[in-house]
Structures are given as C-alpha cells and as structure tokens.
C-alpha cells in the first residue's frame, strides 16, 4: 500500500514528510482516549552524511495543553543518512481530546567532511490530529 504523505518541511536540504491516521481500534473514546499513528519519512537531499541524534516534539491537545517530548533518536534508532538516502519510521500519539496537533524538530550531527561534528536542526512540519466526528 502506497503511503500518502500529507505534510512536509525542508530544512538544510533535509525533507521531513508526515502521514497521520486516526486509529479508532486503538482509541477508547468513552474513556476520553484518542490515538493516532504517524508515518515519517526523512529524506537527505543535502550533500552531507547526517546522523539523527534526537527529537523534540510539541504536542498540543484540543484544550491547548502542551506536552514537550524530547528523546534520543527515533523509535530506538539513531540512523545515519548518506546524501540521497531516506529513513522511515512509524510511531503513535495518544491524546485526551479528539483534536490536537504535533510539530517539532530533529537534531542531526554532520557525520563526515569539512563540517563533521556540526549540529543542525531540521523542522518536523506542523500537523493536525483530528478524530472523525462520532455519533453521540
């Protein structure tokens, strides 16, 4: 099945694409828990080899409450991306409201060349988390 990426952002030649889907089978709406899964593709369009070191997420729920999440790598990995290569991963986000949003950035280290060791920040595009309307 071909994934349809709905959002993208490019920083320093690195493109981050996001596809997000609401998962009713993982949600417990009667208990106030909604769940989304998101697929991210990171494409290195730069001329540098990069290693993804960390992620920073800003997750906002439908009441405006903000949760900041920082961590090493993505889903337990710190991939190295040569020029022209990409990395895909899938993760999920629970919320206590039927709507919200996510955005953030990755921190990469330049892995080789004249700028080896330099850090760059790559934007993760803002995307909405929106559950379909449910019958009351």
UniProtKB/TrEMBL annotation:
<dbReference type="Pfam" id="PF04379">
    <property type="entry name" value="DUF525"/>
</dbReference>
<protein>
    <submittedName>
        <fullName>Co2+/Mg2+ efflux protein ApaG</fullName>
    </submittedName>
</protein>
<dbReference type="InterPro" id="IPR007474">
    <property type="entry name" value="ApaG_domain"/>
</dbReference>
<dbReference type="InterPro" id="IPR036767">
    <property type="entry name" value="ApaG_sf"/>
</dbReference>
<dbReference type="InterPro" id="IPR050718">
    <property type="entry name" value="ApaG-like"/>
</dbReference>
<feature type="domain" description="ApaG">
    <location>
        <begin position="8"/>
        <end position="136"/>
    </location>
</feature>
